[in-house]
Amino acid sequence: MEVLIKLLEHDLIPKHEILTPEGAEAVLKKYGVTRELMPQIKEKDPAIEEMKAKPGDIIKITRNNPVTGKSYYYRVVIEG
N or C, which end of the chain has less CB nearby within 10 Å? Predict the structure, then answer.
């Protein structure tokens, strides 16, 4: 019996989304960085594989914290 789990729908996994090219450029400009200087996430990461993100895509991760509220993290997808 095969059990399929939708990883990105699990309560313990923060929301992941691929930014549009315009959204990605806005983030790069806002923080004054290039893709090479951003934190990285590998394309073989289970959440990234499920999203079908490609190297070079920028992922926005939204984490909820009962004390600090929402916080946003950005990662660039790399090979590997």
Answer: N
What percent of the chain is helix, strand and coil (3-state, nearest 5)?
A: 30, 30, 40
Q: What is the mean pLDDT of the chain?
A: 92
pTM surpassing 0.85? yes
Token duo for residue 44: 């073989």
Domains and CATH numbers, the chain: 7-78 (3.90.940.20)
Calpha distance 77→60 (Å, rounded): 11
How do strand 69-78 and strand 40-42 relate by DSSP bridges? Answer: parallel
